[in-house]
Write the C-alpha cells for this entry.
Amino acid sequence: MPAALTAATIKAAIRDSRAGKRWAKADALMPGLQLRAQPTGARWTVRARLNELQRRWDIGGVCEGDEDVNGLACLTTARSRAMRVKEMCRKDLTPDYVVREFTTGMSIVRQEALAVKKGPPSWLYEKAKEEFLAHVLAKKRADTHRDYTGKLRPRSSIVSTAAPSHPSPAIRS
C-alpha cells in the first residue's frame, strides 16, 4: 500500500530528476495522484477513469514547501488539482481544459476564445488529396503517382471525352 507523500519524498524527486533518475510514487491520501521523477523534471500526475478508459494527466511541475512558486505546485495544490480532475471524470466530463489551465496558467475562457479564433486546423478532403498527389508527383516515381492517383481518383469519377474503343452492342427489341 502506498504511503502518504511527504516533504522528504518531494525533495528526493527533485534531486533525483536533476540526477536523471526516473521513478513514480503514489499518494495514499489522494488515490490516483503520483509524484514522478524524470530527467526532464519532477511532475505531478493524476490517473483517473474517463469513459471506461484509464488515463493519466500531467497536472504541473513540483516545488518544495507549502506555497506554489513560479507555476510549480506544492503538495496541497497537487492534491486539490487531482481531486478536481477525478471529480470531472466521475461526471464523464473531459478535464483537458482544466489541466491545461493548471499547466499553462491560461484560463478556460481564454482557451476557448483562442480555439474559436484559430478555426479548423486541417484541409478539406479534396485539397488534401490534391496536395498529397502533388507531393507524390514531385518526390516519388511516376508509377507510384499513377498507382496513388488510381486509388484516390477511381475510374468511375474520371469522365472520358474520348469515343469508346469498341462499339456497344445493339439493343434488340
About this structure: The radius of gyration is 28 Å. The first strand starts at residue 23 and ends at 26. The first helix runs from residue 7 to 18.
